[in-house]
Amino acid sequence: MSSGVSGYAAINTRVRAKYASLLTPQDIAAMSEASDYPTLIDHLRHSRYSDYLAMVQEADLSPRRAVFQIKTLMADTYVSVIQASPAHTRDLLDRFYRRFEVDNLKAVLRGILSKAPWDQVRYVLFPFGDQTILPAEAMLESGSVMSAIELLNGTPYYDTLSHAMERYTAEQSLFPLEVALDLFYWRALWNEVGHLPNQDREQALRIIGSLLDMNNLMWAIRYRVYHHLSEEELINYTLPFGYRVRDDDVCSLAGGADIAQLLNRIYPNLHDVDALLHEPRQGLPLLEIQLQHRVADQCRGAFSGYPFTVGLPLAFLVLNEYEIQDLTVLIEAKSSRIPSERFHPYLLNQAEASLLA
User: What's the domain count of the chain?
Assistant: First the structure.
C-alpha cells in the first residue's frame, strides 16, 4: 500500500492539470451575461465541454440534454481520477462517486410514481455509465416501486429499501425510502473514511466531513421547518456523527433550539441567517449556498496544503461538481429567460467569499 509521495505523484499531476482547466469566475461572469440560451451554449462550445456538446446534434441539444452532456464529462473525470489514484483510496473515491447513483435511484423511483416514460427519465439521470449497478430502465418499466426494488436484489441498496417499504406502504410517500437511502449512503462513506491511513483520513474528514455536516444540518432544518417532524423522528432521520456538527447539535435542533443561534455558533461568518430563516422557502436554498461556499473554500485550500493525500483528488472532484452546478443554474436560467438578479445569488464560482472560519 503506497500512501506517500510516490503513490500520489501521478494523480497529483493529473488533478492539478484538470484543476487548472476549471472555469474561472470571469468565465462564469461572461456566461451569466449571455443574452439567451443559444449564446450560452456558444460560450460552452469554446470551453472544455466542447467535445461533449458536439456529440449531440444542435437541434437536439435541449437544456436537459445539455446538462446531461456536461455531466458526462464529470462522469468521465471521476473514472479517470479513481483509476489513477493509489489503490488504497479507490474504495473511498468509488463510494464518493456513488452519490450520483443514489440520486439516480431516487429519480427512477419518482419516475415510477409519475408514470414517466424512459425517454423522459433517462436524461434526468446522472450519466454513470458502465459502473452503475442499477437496472434503471428495467426498474422504471416494472411499473411499481415494489417490483423495482425487487430488481435490486443482490445490490447494496436492496436491504435498506426493503426495510423502509413498510413506511412507504403505510404513507404512500417516497420520503422514507429516500431518507433511508441517504442515511445508508453517508454511513457507508463515513466508514470508508475511517479505513484510510492517518494523513489520508485527516484530509478526507475535512472535505467529506464538511459535506456531511452541511447535508445533516440542512436535513434537520428542513425536517423541522417543512415537515414538522417530531423530535424523535428528526433524530432518527439524521446522522449522529460529523466533522464540526455534532450529535448534540442535531439533538438541539430537534428539541426546538433557536436555529439561527445554533448556526451562528457553528459557523460564525454566515451572513443574514435570521433573515434567511424568516422566509425559509427562499432563504434555505441561499443558506445552503453559503455552506457550499465554505466547502468550496476548503477544497481550494487543499491545493495549497500538503499534496500527497486523497484530499487533493477529493477537493478537485467537489470543485468540478460545483462547476456543473453553476452551469446547470445558468442553462436553466437562460432557457427560461430568468433575469440575472434572480439566479446570480445561486452561483458558487464568483469572487471568493472568504467564509472559512
Answer: 1
